[in-house]
Amino acid sequence: xxxxxxxxxxxxxxxxxxxxxxxxxxxxxxxxxxxxxxxxxxxxxxxxxxxxxxxxxxxxxxxxxxxxxxxxxxxxxxxxxxxxxxxxxxxxxxxxxxxxxxxxxxxxxxxxxxxxxxxxxxxxxxxxxxxxxxxxxxxxxxxxxxxxxxxxxxxxxxxxxxxxxxxxxxxxxxxxxxxxxxxxxx
Length: 186
Prior knowledge:
The protein has helices at 31-41, 47-52, 54-59, 81-86, 89-93, 96-115, 127-143, 145-153, 162-165, 171-181, and strands at residues 2-3, 12-18, 68-74, 121-125, 155-159. By secondary structure, it is of the alpha/beta class. The chain has a five-stranded mixed sheet, sandwiched between helices.
């Protein structure tokens, strides 16, 4: 899991499945981040950079983007990743590495809950992130019910993977979330 540092004032968390080759180790720093930035805030700076670099966000007139966090759920080289992408639940049920990933993400969600008290929206990009998130919430219900309830009360958007979303009409949902974070101009 590659993540930016958890931000205490973070209100929205973007969870993408994995880094793309052109991201250079930081989510949404490549061509998909550039496309998202053009669609969401009409900038020619990768969206990941606007979220990650406060000075760049302020210089471009979008300081409110500091309230968005981005993380990737997978590296892409996990042994269970192909089964997860294909939706083979039976194969995953016996895969020990997948259970460890669910356990790690469950602990990560507990950390997010304790540190990011203002978080109200999670945007899951891709089926693989959605499946792991669901499995982690089920496990979280068993381990810590009130934390699981807090995540169930949050708005959770389930969208296609980023590379598909930039060509999808549902990009408007993400744009609406980003616009709600912006201060009003009145």
